[in-house]
């Protein structure tokens, strides 16, 4: 196995996207795209998927599953996890909070048509009343470029991903959040993130009908 | 803030129970403040103690920590229950992720309608016996050691024991096809700190009842129907 991780997932965002973001710093060897149920069943039969689920990331001789476990490992390995236990605690708290918001976006394409408007409203409400105010305040209070310890970390990557994902649904969502606007610009200019945001990167587009169909067929 | 960690939650299991287990396993004494009224909750909110307006919240080492996973990771690392290196931590994280998903099916169970409860009961048993228990059974069989990771007691062991007991409460003979897990359960239960936690009078909480459900709904104003996942 080469130095770089190998990702196995559907050809779309889902739970793998946050991992792709985090690996933007490290680079990815290859991605294997699951397109059919047969491929998925074979992976299970061959014993690749510990709990019969993807994402799967082959990294450093391990077949890692469980999104959080994978991201914690990557963050630890690439020095994106703070300098001590307390900074790690802060990063974990922020990442977990953002992850709750991202979960709403993750399931959104799968909500029935008559629930979509309500769910979109919930995403907007949570983003603007629960999550974004927290990070706006954190950045305002310490006046630093990064969320934790004056250093680029997993928390910054995760927040950046979340901001862009929410903006895709609610374009003006940052209008009440000047600190987050500045943060978004700064993160966009970090070299590895800048590269990830350019066409041709491993970044996946927003889920479309084809992606939803593939998921439903594969995991029914 | 006292020297002991202080837990803010309802007087019941919910998302706080895994934290109680882990603190107990680490031999750490803790205090609890139980949310009983909406007023208490609003007071906590207004005081700015709840980062994302949610409990669990644990006051520990000068921090007001929220987010169950963040709290558990901090405790595990602080009390040396998180493996000896990054790779052992990765394994522990993977295993805990699995038991967390399994316990997730049980977490919302008390809030389901009677009809959904019946369906969910079957789901819990099916997932436990065909997706999760076989994994840990195999891990233990393959390495033949007493603990899941690195031949050392860790968060993964505590979490698995908690999960096993919770599933057994739903189906008492659920471990019948899993001899390794039966031995594991006996072994981990007899570790002094765990034994103490399993005795009456400890801070372990009982199976959620109607009163618990009512309290949660009242405090959080969570009156909508909870759907099974």
UniProtKB/TrEMBL annotation, chain A:
Q: Among the record's GO biological process terms, what is one? A: glutathione metabolic process
- Check the record and name the CDD domains matching this protein: GST_C_Alpha
Q: Which InterPro entries match?
A: Glutathione-S-Trfase_C-like, Glutathione-S-Trfase_C_sf, Glutathione_S-Trfase, Glutathione_S-Trfase_N, GST_alpha, GST_C, GST_superfamily, Thioredoxin-like_sf
Domain of life (superkingdom)? Eukaryota
E.C. numbers: 2.5.1.18
- Which Gene3D superfamilies does its entry note? 1.20.1050.10, Glutaredoxin
Q: Which family does it belong to?
A: Belongs to the GST superfamily. Alpha family.
Question: What name goes with this protein?
Answer: glutathione transferase
**What gene name does this entry carry?**
Gsta3_1
TrEMBL record, chain B:
State the Gene Ontology terms under molecular function: glutathione transferase activity
Quote the catalytic activity from the record: RX + glutathione = an S-substituted glutathione + a halide anion + H(+)
- Record keywords: NADP included? no
Q: Where is the GST C-terminal domain?
A: 85-209
Q: Which InterPro entries match?
A: Glutathione-S-Trfase_C-like, Glutathione-S-Trfase_C_sf, Glutathione_S-Trfase, Glutathione_S-Trfase_N, GST_alpha, GST_C, GST_superfamily, Thioredoxin-like_sf
Q: Give its E.C. classification number.
A: 2.5.1.18
Indicate the family of this protein. Answer: Belongs to the GST superfamily. Alpha family.
Please report the name of this protein according to its UniProt entry. Glutathione S-transferase
The protein's gene is named Gsta3_0
């Amino acid at each position: 196995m080469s130095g770089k991780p190998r990702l196995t997932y559907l050809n779309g965002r889902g739970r793998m996207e946050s991992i792709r973001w985090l690996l933007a710093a490290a680079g990815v060897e290859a991605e294997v795209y699951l397109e059919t149920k047969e491929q998925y069943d074979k992976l299970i039969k061959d014993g690749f998927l510990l709990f019969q689920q993807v994402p799967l990331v082959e990294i450093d001789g391990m077949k890692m599953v469980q999104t959080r476990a994978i991201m914690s490992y990557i963050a630890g390995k690439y020095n994106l996890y703070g300098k001590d236990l307390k900074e790690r605690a802060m990063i974990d708290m922020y990442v977990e909070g953002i992850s709750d918001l991202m979960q709403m976006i993750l399931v959104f394409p799968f909500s029935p048509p008559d629930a979509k408007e309500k769910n979109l409203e919930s995403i907007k409400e949570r983003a603007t009343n629960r999550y974004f105010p927290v990070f706006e305040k954190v950045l305002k209070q310490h006046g630093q470029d990064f969320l934790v310890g004056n250093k680029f970390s997993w928390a910054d990557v995760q927040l950046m991903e979340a901001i862009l994902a929410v903006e895709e649904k609610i374009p003006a969502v940052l209008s009440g959040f000047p600190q987050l606007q500045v943060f978004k610009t700064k993160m966009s200019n970090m070299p590895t993130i800048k590269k990830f945001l350019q066409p041709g990167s491993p970044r996946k587009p927003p889920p479309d009908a084809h992606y939803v169909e593939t998921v439903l067929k594969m995991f029914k | 803030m006292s020297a002991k960690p202080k837990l803010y939650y309802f007087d019941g299991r919910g998302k706080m129970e895994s934290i109680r287990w882990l603190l107990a396993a680490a031999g750490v004494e803790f205090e609890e403040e139980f949310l009983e009224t909406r007023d208490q909750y609003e007071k906590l909110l207004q005081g700015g103690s709840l980062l994302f307006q949610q409990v669990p919240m644990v006051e520990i080492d000068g921090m007001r920590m929220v987010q169950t996973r963040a709290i558990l990771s901090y405790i595990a690392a602080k009390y040396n229950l998180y493996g000896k290196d990054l790779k052992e931590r990765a394994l522990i994280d993977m295993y805990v992720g699995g038991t967390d998903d399994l316990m997730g099916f049980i977490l919302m169970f008390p809030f389901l309608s009677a009809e959904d409860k019946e369906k969910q009961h079957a789901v819990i048993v099916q997932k436990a016996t065909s997706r999760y228990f076989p994994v840990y059974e195999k891990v233990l069989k393959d390495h033949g050691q007493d603990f899941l990771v690195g031949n050392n007691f860790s968060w993964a062991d505590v979490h698995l024991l908690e999960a096993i007991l919770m599933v057994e409460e739903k189906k008492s003979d659920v471990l019948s096809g899993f001899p390794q897990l039966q031995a594991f359960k006996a072994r981990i239960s007899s570790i002094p700190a765990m034994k103490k936690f399993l005795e009456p009078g400890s801070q372990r909480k009982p199976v959620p009842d109607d009163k618990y459900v009512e309290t949660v709904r009242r405090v959080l104003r969570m009156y909508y129907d909870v759907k099974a996942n």
